[in-house]
Amino acid sequence: SNELTQPPSVSVSPGQTARITCSGDTLAKQYSYWYQQKPGQAPSLVISKDSERPSGIPERFSGSSSGTTVTLTISGVQAEDEADYYCQSEDNSGTYQVVFGGGTKLTVL
Amino acid sequence: QIQLVQSGAEVRKSGASVKVSCKASGYTFSSYGISWLRQAPGQGLEWMGWVTTENTHYAQKFQGRVTMTTDTSTNTAYMELRSLRSDDTAIYYCARDPIEFYDSIGFTNWFDPWGQGTLVTVSS
């Protein structure tokens, strides 16, 4: 399957840890990437190649991978982290395609 | 700093075409690809394809309806979408794309940074 599945929403209180999962068969073979999108803004990359944090991304953002599931973890969530988060990978099983999860709305209570 | 600046909002009738530009600065344009993506109102992200100075690869969904080009004299990428329908109404983004290839997994793409987006509205 070339689909990536994310929970529609995750809610946490400030200072707690948020975990957003993304599952799909292709994740067992391909790298995953995570993007943050705040209202009215373009997405921005927060995690690359499963667990690499691009320059300028706070250390509280981390990524991990296990089999067909990858997880974005935000430790010590801050109000400014409230956003939509999208996972992304590739499907190389047939005609090459880039695939995205449906997105997860992170609400900071 | 690395920046992608897109052209302004467009309104088209069903059946028409639209061409969106994306001017890159702050890096060596020919060393990276540009991917085009879109986001319908209230919806998620959808990849349309990539273009480099040497080749293109389009998502199956858009094959035959999209053309992506580059102009190295101005470091600008273009995306033209034809036969527009109402469900093509979306914000269209360009993004810098390293397009790496590994023998073990084939291609891998990621998008950083993104342009500011161009709203394309298709009316009937």
What does this structure look like?
The complex is a heterodimer of chains A (109) and B (124). Chain A has strands spanning 9-12, 18-23, 33-37, 44-47, 61-66, 69-74, 83-91, 97-100, 104-108. In chain A, strands 1, 3, 4, 7, 8 and 9 form a 6-stranded mixed sheet that branches. In chain A, strands 2-6-5 form a 3-stranded antiparallel sheet, with no helix packed on it. With 109 residues, chain A is an all-beta fold. Chain A has no helices and 9 strands. Chain B is mainly beta. In chain B, a hairpin with a 5-residue loop joins strand 4 (33-39) and strand 5 (45-51). The A-B interface holds A 29-31, 33, 35, 42-45, 48-49, 54, 86, 88, 90, 92, 95-103 and B 35, 44-47, 57, 59-60, 93, 105-117.
Supply database-style keywords.
heterodimer; A: about 110 residues; mainly beta; six-stranded mixed β-sheet; three-stranded antiparallel β-sheet; 9 strands; B: about 120 residues; four-stranded antiparallel β-sheet; 12 strands; about 0% helix
